[in-house]
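Quick one, probably user error.
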């Protein structure tokens, strides 16, 4: 999978910095930041796959979901971080009510 899933690391002490990965932004113009609630059993998009932006960073606040890409499927849950490669097509299905915090970098690059 091109999408990288970073499970919640074990952190301890007063300050434990845990970088996940570095991404090259190549002159990003804009970013959308927000939260989305996906009800249990809901698939986004309803059919097919889509790319939301040049880069997508998502933090699973609560819940559990399946993320499908051309490379396969992975289960993500509260505390996991997803970092999607530029314009990677994907779909998300909530296995239970799920809340996601997201950052879409250059969202104008969307493909449905």
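Nope, works fine. Designed sequence:
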């Amino acid at each position: 999978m091109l999408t990288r899933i970073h499970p919640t690391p074990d952190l301890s002490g007063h300050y434990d910095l845990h970088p996940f990965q570095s991404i090259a932004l190549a002159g990003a113009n804009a970013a959308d930041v927000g939260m989305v609630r996906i009800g249990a059993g809901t698939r986004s998009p309803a059919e097919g796959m889509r790319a939301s932006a040049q880069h997508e960073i998502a933090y699973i606040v609560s819940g559990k979901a399946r993320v499908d890409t051309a490379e396969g499927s992975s289960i993500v849950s509260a505390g996991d971080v997803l970092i999607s490669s530029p314009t990677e097509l994907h779909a998300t299905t909530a296995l239970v009510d799920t809340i996601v915090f997201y950052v879409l970098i250059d969202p104008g690059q969307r493909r449905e």
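Strands lie at 4-6, 31-38, 43-44, 55-62, 64-69, 72-77, 81-84, 90-94, 98-105.
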